[in-house]
Amino acid sequence: MVVGKIITIAGSDTLSGGGVQADLATFNEYGLFGLSAITSIVTVNQYDFDIHEVPISVLAKQLTSLGELSDIKGIKVGLLPSVAHIDLVSQFIKQYVGRVPIVIDPVMAFKETDSVNASELSTAIKQKLLPLATVVTPNLIEAELLTQQAIHSEADLLTVAEMLHKIGPKTVVVKGGVRLDGDMASDAVISEDTKKVIKLSKIERPFNNGAGCTFSAAIASQIAQNVPVLMAIDDAKDFVHHGILHGVNLNDDFKVGNVWQAARRRKG
Ligand SMILES: Nc1ncnc2c1ncn2[C@@H]1O[C@H](COP(=O)(O)OP(=O)(O)O)[C@@H](O)[C@H]1O
Ligand SMILES: Cc1ncc(COP(=O)(O)O)c(C=O)c1O
Question: Domain count of the chain?
Answer without folding.
Answer: 1
